[in-house]
Amino acid sequence: MKISNVTAIPLSYRLPEGKTVTMGVGSTLKRDAIIIRVETSDGIVGYGESHPGRSAGAIVSLIENTLKPLILGMQATDVIGAWQRIHRMQFSSHGLGAGAALAYSGIDMALWDIRGKAANMPLYELLGGSSKRIPAYAGGIALGYQPKESLAEEAQSYVDQGYRAVKLRIGDTTQNDIARCLHVRKVLGDDIDILTDANTAYTIAQVRRVLPALADIKAGWLEEPFACNDFASYREAAKITPLVPIAAGENHFMRFEFAQMLEAGAVQVWQPDLSKTGGITEAIRIADLGSAFRIPIHAHSSATGLNHAATLHYLAAIENAGYFEACVSHFNPFRDMFGATFSIGKDGCVEPPKGPGLGVEVDEAIFKEYPVVDGPGYIVKF
Ligand SMILES: [Mg+2]
Questions:
Q1: Which residue windows are coiled coil (predicted)?
Q2: Residue 11 has what pLDDT?
């Protein structure tokens, strides 16, 4: 079963008026996603998702013109061999670093979908896991900057659906952030896990002001206070209090950067994204690396049901699995365009799909409803 074709399909949608969410990276205008389609000589087709990295066209070009020729004709089941070839030819020298990781992630995901379909097994089973209840938090592009009263109402609406954990967007002024967090804790009570995400918008001085308040409300973590490569600030932040773990990983690529986080002793919660970090193959290695240090994996999940499904299979098959990030965005047609891939239970948990491979039935006819839109996905007022 040889890899006979690789196609990258960029998709976009615009946020309708009044549906934008504001957070540390700006206000959302539109969202992009790249669906990867891998064909085999046996006729099995696998699908994956690559994160667009704010430039869908660049990632599509990298896949079509550079990565595809490297793996055409290889055994479709040889996920390690394909990964090694891409790493040797596109990362090690003159490559595009993070861009190549984004681009290859969707191909690797599609190869795992093919393996599962060929073996007639759901991916969690193929990976050595089992169907199990996985705790989920209300995340995705939601719970953004807004008056504390409406934020608490929004958070409560997710708790009413079954979620036992919610993630608030911080990285606004520290005064606003603290007021919102205190109010949401008061409204939700003590039994709900409150997580926080600054989307890289803080300075170390702001983190010194905010962390004691996050400790007071028993926040589950502070996510991405700084830019992904600012290890010095991460190291400083980790010394402020042992009560609130620092989380990061959605913008860290491959096990090598997670090893750097480990060496910096700076990040206690890891959040690899399967559509960004180098695919399922690499995310398994990252989980294994973290497991030796008892680091939990609360995977970040991106736009479409393909990544959501892959993440659920992954969390059902690694030893140090934490939360599934459930996209609760009020407007995300990508989430459900192949049908719902998860549903929240009264216990606050979700389960991986049961079908072979990723367990997602892809209807390609739907792609024409989301033609790619050039331009930025977020606007920021500096
Ligand atoms: Mg985040």
A1: none
A2: 97
CATH 3.30.390.10, the chain: domain bounds: 2-121
- Find the 199 Cα to ligand 1 centroid distance in Å: 6
Alpha-carbon distance 33 to 304, whole Å? 7
Segments of the chain scoring below 70 in pLDDT: 381-382
pTM of the model: 0.97
Q: Helices marked H in the chain — which ranges?
A: 56-62, 68-71, 79-86, 98-119, 123-126, 148-161, 174-188, 204-216, 231-237, 254-264, 279-291, 305-315, 333-336
How many Cβ atoms are within 10 Å of 93's Cβ, its own excluded? Answer: 7
- Calculate how far, in angstroms, residue 42's C-alpha sits from the geometric centre of ligand 1: 39
- Considering only the top CATH level, what class is 2-121? alpha beta
Query: Distance between CA 131 and CA 124 in Å, rounded?
Result: 7
> Which tens digit of pLDDT belongs to each residue from 250-266?
999 999 999 999 998 98
Q: According to the model, what pLDDT value does residue 380 have?
A: 77
> Across the chain, how many H-helices and E-strands are there?
13, 14
Q: Which residue type sits at 327?
A: C
- Distance, CA 7 to ligand 1 centroid (Å)? 28
96, 134 in Cβ contact below 8 A?
no
* SS3 state at 37: strand
Kindly give the distance from the C-alpha atom of residue 196 to the centroid of ligand 1, in angstroms, as a whole number: 9
Phi, psi dihedrals of residue 271, rounded to the nearest 5°? -130, 60
CA of 204 to the centre of ligand 1 (A): 18
Give me ligand 1 centre to Cα 197, in Å: 6
220 C-alpha to ligand 1 centroid (Å): 14
Residues of the chain with CATH 3.20.20.120: 124-350
